[in-house]
Amino acid sequence: MKNFFTTIPNLLLSVVLCFVLSSCSSTGVKMSESSPWTTIQFEDQANALDVDFIDDKRGFLVGSNRLIMESTDGGETWEKRSLDISAEENFRLLDIDFKGEEGWLIGQPSLVMHTLDAGKNWTRLSLGNKLPGQPFLITTVDAGIAELATTAGAIYETSDSGESWNAKVVDASGSGGVRDLRRTNKGDYVSVSSLGNFFSTLENDSDAWIAHQRASSKRVQSIGFNPEGSLWMLSRGAEIRFNEDSNDLENWSKPIIPILNGYNYLDMGWDPNGDIWAGGGNGTLIVSKDQGKTWNKDPIASDLPTNYIKIVFLDKDALDNKKGFVLGERGYILKWNS
User: Fold this and answer.
1) What is the pTM of this model?
2) CB 271 within 8 Å of CB 35
3) Of the chain's two ends, which shows fewer C-beta atoms within 10 Å, N or C?
4) How many Cβ atoms from other residues are within 10 Å of residue 334's Cβ?
């Protein structure tokens, strides 16, 4: 009789768990037979945070601890470079973006730099002391024109190579602060609030953020746009969701939970073949070839002792072939073999 009563809590737990999982889509994940990725490991174990290319051969990678590296062979090899900034300033170089030979890079705390000669020389710009938040995202729009977004949800535009900046958002408080923020080529933005409790959108022709409820009680990790401009969302509990109607941002798919291993997904990206990649903690990198219905683990990525924090696929007019990188921690990155 005693054994019978001790099994009741376990039975109840099983029933509750089955009920919870019945509202989700857990696909199960097998290991892929091959991988399109090549591992690159840097001696400097700083975390790579962004990468961009000027043309098929020349590109830059930036990251923590003032990390800046240049490639002249399409990303096969990388060499360390330095910036003309004080040795006492330990910047976290967060984002870099080129259009032609003109480029911008930003860092925290409060660093903005500009180049006109493909990164041979960089000029540091003054932002003053009234900028709300820290630089978070920089976009090279056109010659001498760039947009800068901050952790406070403020967005500024310069049309004179950084001599002056004009606010594009009247009230940045609608963003709730920023833990993640993305921009489309058309100038639309989406952001996740600093606490992950809601997300906000900003259309190109608008000067105000519009807040939206998150898809569930789980806090949002990150959010972004797919190649068609629709939204995806990554939430705590390793949940993946897709917006099913771009005109209704409250309409989300059921949560897809490919792997329940205790690690969250941190970023997603669409490769040139249309396959979806999601990366996260403990070497987690998975791919779906059927729009998120089923997923496979990548065999090369799974063997590396790192967390994958950013997935970048570059498709620019200056590139003859699309490029792809998965940026990991502790000096690891993956390069797409196109």
Assistant:
1) 0.89
2) no
3) N
4) 26
